[in-house]
Amino acid sequence: MLKIGVILGSVREGRNGLAVAKWTTEKAKAFTQGQEVEFELVDLLDYELPFLGTKATAKQEEAIKKWSDKMASFDGYIFVVAEYNHGVSGAFKNALDFLNPEVKDKALAFVGYGGLGAARSIENLRMIAGQLAMATTQTNVNLSLMTDFEKMSIFKPADYHEGELKALLGQLINWSSALKTIR
């Protein structure tokens, strides 16, 4: 059984990402029904991580351990990412900096949302993923605030994104299965 984490990387108040992450998780489960794969939504907001390099409190040390253990439990990931100032959110980059062996030799796909579907944030994350020895899929889902959200806040994705998600899942499952054999 493959375990795929759908990781919501935004902690911003009023974020659109929770609706996107829920859609991604629900569609992924429906599209892979009958396959040996399960999906779990993980919200970064549930982990009160300190800034890397600062002295962590006991509560923050527990959050680091909880984050590390959760990320280590998966065979692959879908990062649901926003784009802030042409890049990945600071909170998500910080959270990734706490990881290395937990994600090494695992597969990663991206569902982005923003003005340009988080394309620049995804490209930024591809470099980070490379340094973490993660394999990224070729296919992304890029959701535009202008066309996939009513009034830039009510998530209403265009139907064609389901086809993109199916292609993304096919690649992610193949990579996750292959990489599981070398860990």
TrEMBL record:
GO cellular component term of the entry, any: cytosol
Ranges of residues in domain NADPH-dependent FMN reductase-like: 3-142
Any one GO MF annotation of this record: oxidoreductase activity
Domain of life: Bacteria
Coiled-coil positions: none
TM region(s), chain numbering: none
Database matches in InterPro entries: Flavoprotein-like_sf, FMN_Rdtase-like_dom, NAD(P)H-dep_reductase
Protein name: NADPH-dependent oxidoreductase
Organism: Lactococcus hircilactis
Lineage, opening ranks: Bacteria, Bacillati, Bacillota, Bacilli, Lactobacillales
